[in-house]
UniProtKB/TrEMBL annotation:
Signal peptide annotation: none
Keywords of the record: Glycoprotein, Repeat, Signal
UniProt cross-references to Pfam families, sorted A to Z: FG-GAP_2
UniProt xrefs under SUPFAM superfamilies: Galactose oxidase, central domain
Source taxonomy: Eukaryota, Sar, Stramenopiles, Ochrophyta, Bacillariophyta
TM region(s), chain numbering: none
Intervals holding FG-GAP repeats: 30-86
Native organism: Eucampia antarctica
InterPro entries the UniProt entry points to: FG-GAP, Gal_Oxase/kelch_b-propeller, Gal_Oxidase_central_sf, Int_alpha_beta-p, Integrin_alpha_N
Entry protein name: Uncharacterized protein
Length: 369
């Protein structure tokens, strides 16, 4: 939790990303210069993801016209500690055709060598997510086939990788399931390096009703065995654990009911899958799993009421936590506030120029120093 990346995809029109590192004394200092997008309107910084040590970053530009209008691309950068600069790692990974919006969501493995990239599923295919691996000379090679389903949905999708990059969760919040509109779904896949194929793990986690939009918020544990999912505020947030005997995803603990008057909510899961942080409106709840009672117990951490009035309601842009859930970053409209649960005070506020509605953030998953 000592490194934070903040994307502002309408800043200076081209979009930009800033990376900050925590220093002793409660100060956050910028790491390297701003990473600036290539062209105006690309949406550069719409999605960001850091490696575990904070030295690698993936940045999505889903509105890039690199291969046709809104085909999208993803740029991979690595930090040079000697020169204090961010350098492009290999060539941009480019969407295969116009309208794909490749890079709506990105997720890096812990070592930064594997990246998952989601899209808007496009006409004539069932492709939702592609995964790429960096093998040699900074060349990004697709790992296995395209992940998706049997249906052509033409909806925006989102992706989360487990730490090794061999397990991936994908969500389609606006998925229409039989007679239900925008109920949403989440699927988890495992990669077999011998066959170079992805296989779905267990059953599909589906939304509970019309406009649930399950998967609008989503996170996965480091080993890929636990998934936290949320949707619209009138439906509860839930955690699922994979049962190897039944080959199904079974709910872990009770559902967490979100205030129906809340205007938004987001969630973040610890690496072990035993702690999760839920944000709705101006309330933050930290919950720890109790094995004996099979219940989520609320932490005594006393978060202040946030009083945030600006929020864009988009995937991943509300709240994120470090691997141990001690450090929590909250999107605060025109700033990002960092909290340490041992002493829930605002350590510092990172102010980014640009429209407050267009922030996305990613906190490095290491433990807070």
């Amino acid at each position: 939790g000592s490194i934070l990346a903040i994307g502002s995809y309408k800043n200076v029109n081209k979009g930009s990303v800033k990376v900050f590192k925590y220093k002793s004394g409660g100060n956050w200092t910028q790491r390297g210069l701003n990473i600036i997008g290539e062209n105006t309107g690309d949406g550069f910084g719409k999605s960001v993801s850091l490696s575990a040590d904070g030295s690698s970053i993936a940045i999505g530009a889903p509105r890039s016209d690199a291969n046709g209008t809104n085909s999208g691309h993803v740029s991979m950068y690595v930090y040079d500690e000697t020169n204090k600069k961010w350098f492009l790692r290999g060539k941009n990974i480019i969407g295969s055709e116009a309208g794909l919006k490749f890079g709506i969501s990105v997720s890096l493995s812990a070592d930064g060598s594997v990246v998952g990239i989601s899209t808007k599923s496009y006409s004539g295919t069932t492709c939702y997510v592609r995964v790429f691996e960096n093998k040699m000379q900074d060349e990004w090679i697709q790992r296995g086939g395209c992940l998706g389903g049997n249906e052509i949905i033409e909806k925006e999708t989102y992706v989360k990788l487990a730490s090794t990059g061999s397990v991936v969760a994908i969500s389609v919040p606006e998925y229409d399931d039989e007679n239900e509109v925008a109920s949403g779904l989440v699927k988890v896949f495992d990669y077999n390096s011998f066959t170079n194929k992805w296989t779905q793990i267990g059953d599909t986690i589906r939304g509970d009703g019309n406009n649930h939009m399950l998967g609008r918020s989503m996170d996965i544990s480091s080993d890929g065995s636990v998934v936290a999912v949320g949707g619209r505020t009138n439906y509860p947030a839930k955690v699922y654990k994979y049962n190897d005997n039944s080959k199904k995803w079974q709910q872990k603990g009770q559902s967490i009911q979100v205030d129906t008057d809340a205007t938004y909510y987001g969630l973040s899961l610890s690496s072990s899958g035993s702690i999760w942080v839920v944000l709705y409106s101006d309330i933050v709840r930290v919950l720890t799993y109790d094995e004996l009672t099979n219940q989520w117990l609320e932490s005594s951490a006393n978060f202040p009421v946030l009083n945030y009035t600006d929020y864009n309601g988009e995937m991943d842009s509300s709240i994120l936590s470090s691997a141990d859930a001690i450090t929590v970053a909250v999107n605060a409209g025109d700033k990002v506030d960092i909290y340490q649960l041992e002493s829930p005070q605002v350590d510092n506020s990172l102010i980014c120029k640009g429209d407050s509605f267009f922030f996305n953030l990613m906190i490095q998953p290491d433990q807070f120093p």
